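Curious: can you check?
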Amino acid sequence: MGKRTKLLLVKALKRIIWVTWLVIFFYSMASVSFKLYAEIVDPSKYDSYFLWAGVKPQPTLENAETIYIHAGEVRMNDNTQIVDMRAGVPRINHANIWMTLRVERIDWSDQVYNQMLAKLSRWEGKQKHFQGVQIDFDAATLNLKGYALFLKELRRRLPERYQLSITGLMDWSASGKTSALSSLSEVVDEIVIQTYQGLDTITNYNDYLLTLNRIRFPYRIALVQGGDWLPTTNFKMDSFFKGYVVFLVNPNL
């Protein structure tokens, strides 16, 4: 290799390094700017909420339109019972109420189905606008078909007067098979897509939200209180979009 060729290669390599650093710099600046202009999720600006066990009710709930209340859990070490997360059934007359079950496994025994139905009956008796049950299960995207089969069986056992809601991961619309998403649409009344992990908004949530047009049944978008929110998609143009739900957290967290 001649000196001239080596010199050209060195110059080309320098240009590549320079361009790479520029891309990294501008991407970093864009991320910082996005953070600066993003709205901090304030529950008072919304009308629907998740109220999890251990989270103290906030004044904004007094004007809520819809509340999803964490009522029980089916835990990984036991598929024979629902663990109660509340000492009693709350009585709320001004809002639409959903009984939410956090689920770590879906191979339910008959005991769990029966307990769920009994709980639904008790909750319905205390609410003026009771909607039904919501299942909060982090199904793997590749196993959505299996999850849909579980939901189909659950739907079969539910009295028709109860609706069925589920929470969902953003990756479902981004990577899930169309047939699997269609299977979910056949058995649930709505899905609430979570844009957070733990108590933090997922950094690249807008990339995922671009794929929500693959959800062809009613959906809501869940935000975490205090998280960042600056969507680049106009969801109001989508007839399947039914609004936002804020996951409430204790103010000191």
